[in-house]
Each structure stands twice: as structure tokens, then as C-alpha cells.
Write a structure and sequence with these properties.
- The chain is of the alpha+beta class.
- Helix content is 38%, strand content 11%.
- Strands 1, 2, 3, 4, 5 and 6 form a six-stranded mixed beta sheet that branches.
- A hairpin with a 3-residue loop joins β4 and β5.
- α2 crosses α4.
- The chain is elongated, with a radius of gyration of 24 Å.
Length: 318
């Protein structure tokens, strides 16, 4: 199989929640060896990088930027450690340990407060949580829009089918050739333009996908893996509840707790009026994370190459 590819240069996009400064009780602050909301304690290299990163962010902030009064001459630039601790409502000793690279585990709530105190932008915030080995309660969000350049690439893929989907399997854009396989997506309700929904409910997509029962195993496993980063988001929870209610087959597969990362492979479609299309499908990631991607379908053999000329042409990408 081919490796996944990227069309875009890395760019972090996120929304930072409104600032609130609630004082953290001492028990909520992490101590060496204590448990917190985290993925794994960072190793030595990451702890040292985290310490250097925090110092650099602290030293760039003037006291007046965060509403603190100027109190005499400062020996070092930026904020003092105790000022960051005050702004984040955490203990001075604890914050000092964090900035010294000590082996402590820290909760997502405390990291969130530190990120706000240091005025971190979305990219910096994501970097902080990565270095700390913690899950961000306000992570980088996928941008649902499809740029004109991506639509142009979709059009230029002709005569080969191509579609843009997000990690939730929502269909975001596609070319005319893709509709020749899955049918008129514009005629569907917006909430139904989701490949997983179409795979588990009566649809043209399910009808033409020859190995749909096998393909659905991978779809559910990839959806579960992706949902780990989005489990609290309403759109994800709504889709999950909707498919669980509509499909006993999906409910059975969901209970297996299988997970899988997206990859490339082979799909076969029996398309009315066209014939059997055996395709290599390849993922082209549209951002730095495993979120939105363009999936292209290229012929696996000469017969499929010839048959793809029978797919619709001419309509601009949607």
C-alpha cells in the first residue's frame, strides 16, 4: 500500500475558550508521582523542552500586558514565576517545579490555566499540551471549509473520482466523477452526506460498494479511533447516537472497540451503466493533523481505466 500524503503545510487552527480564573485547590494541583488527566508522563527530553518553552513564553510577557503593576527594576525580562502562578491560580512551588522540568504529572485544567496566564496562541497551547503529555480540553478544531485551491484539485483529478471528507466521514466536497459512483449527493439532506451513515443505511453508496460488509469494519474502527479526540463534541455524539439507533450492525461493531488509523487500499464498485471499477484509493491530508483529507480513486487495472471514462464529466467540484 502507498503511504498517506499531505497537500498542505502545517498550520494550527484552534479556538481558545473565554478566560476564567478560578483558584485551584491545593489537592487539584499535581504533585510528583500523583495521578492527573494525562496520556503519559513526559520523558526527560520532553520535560526539558517543556521547561524551556515555559520560560521563553514567560519572559516575553510584560507585566502591564496582564494587568500587573510595575514594581521596581526587574533583573530578568518578562514575568516572574510567582506572577505566572498568581495569574494561573496555582502554587508557586508547583509552577517552579514545572518550569524546572521536574518529573510531575499535571492535570489538563491546570495546564489550561497556565496557557491562559501565558497568553498562548492556539499553536503554542497545542505544543504545551503535547509536551506535557496531556489531553487538551479545547483542542485544535478542524476547519470545515474547503478552499478554492482544493476544489480546483478535485476538478483536475478528472477522469478519476475524488472526494474530501473529515475524520467524522462527513462529505465536504467532491467532483462529478465521484457522484457517478455514489449518486447525487446534492439531492440528499446535509446530515445524510456522511459515508458511515450511507454505509449502514440504505443508499446508493452501499449498493455499489462490493465489499461493503468488510469495508464497514474498517470504517467503524477508524471512526472510534478518531472520536477519542472528539468524544465531548456534540456533532460527534449526535452522529454516533443516530447511527447506533438506525443500524443494529453498527451497534454490534461498535461494541467490539476495534480501532484503526486511516490508510490507503483497494475498493471495488459495481456501478450501474458503467461496470466493475477496481480502484486504488489514496488519502491526501489537507492539514497537519489526521482530520480532513482528499481521497482519490485511481484505476487498479486497464479495464477500470477505460470504464472511468464513462463516469460523468463537466460539472464543477461541489
Amino acid at each position: 500500500m502507498l503511504g498517506s500524503m499531505s497537500l498542505a503545510t502545517p498550520a494550527a487552527q484552534a479556538r481558545t475558550a473565554p478566560a476564567t480564573h478560578a483558584r485551584t485547590a491545593p489537592a487539584a494541583q499535581a504533585r510528583p508521582g500523583s495521578a492527573g488527566q494525562h496520556r503519559a508522563a513526559p520523558d526527560d527530553a520532553r520535560r526539558h523542552e517543556l521547561a524551556a518553552f515555559l520560560r521563553s513564553r514567560r519572559e516575553r510577557i510584560a507585566p502591564e500586558q496582564v494587568g500587573l503593576p510595575l514594581t521596581g527594576r526587574r533583573r530578568t525580562p518578562g514575568l516572574r514565576r510567582e506572577e505566572v502562578a498568581q495569574l494561573a491560580a496555582v502554587g508557586v512551588t508547583w509552577y517552579t517545579w514545572l518550569e524546572q522540568g521536574r518529573d510531575i504529572q499535571v492535570s489538563a485544567q491546570v495546564l489550561d490555566a497556565v496557557a491562559r496566564a501565558l497568553l498562548l496562541d492556539p499553536s503554542e497551547r497545542a505544543h504545551l499540551f503535547t509536551l506535557a503529555g496531556a489531553d487538551d480540553p479545547a483542542p485544535v478544531r478542524e476547519c470545515p471549509s474547503v478552499t478554492p485551491s482544493v476544489r480546483l484539485v478535485l476538478e483536475q483529478m478528472a477522469p478519476y473520482p475524488a472526494v474530501v471528507v473529515n475524520s467524522r466521514y462527513d462529505v465536504l466536497a467532491y467532483n462529478a466523477q465521484y457522484t457517478g459512483i455514489v449518486g447525487d449527493l446534492e439531492a440528499m439532506a446535509p446530515e445524510d452526506r456522511n459515508l458511515m451513515w450511507m454505509a449502514f443505511t440504505p443508499s446508493r453508496f452501499r449498493d455499489v460498494l462490493i465489499d461493503y460488509r468488510t469495508e464497514r469494519l474498517g470504517m467503524v474502527a477508524r471512526f472510534r479511533a478518531a472520536m477519542a479526540d472528539h468524544s465531548s463534541e456534540p456533532a460527534w455524539k449526535a452522529l454516533l447516537a443516530r447511527v447506533l439507533k438506525a443500524s443494529p450492525d453498527f451497534a454490534e461493531l461498535w461494541q467490539r472497540h476495534d480501532v484503526m488509523r486511516p490508510g490507503n487500499g483497494i475498493k471495488r464498485f459495481q456501478v450501474p451503466g458503467v461496470g466493475l471499477l477496481s480502484c486504488d484509493y489514496t488519502n491526501f491530508w489537507l492539514g497537519p493533523r489526521l482530520g480532513s483529507r482528499m481521497i482519490t480513486y485511481t484505476p487498479l487495472d486497464e479495464e477500470t481505466r477505460a470504464l472511468m471514462d464513462k463516469l460523468p464529466t463537466g460539472a464543477p467540484a461541489h
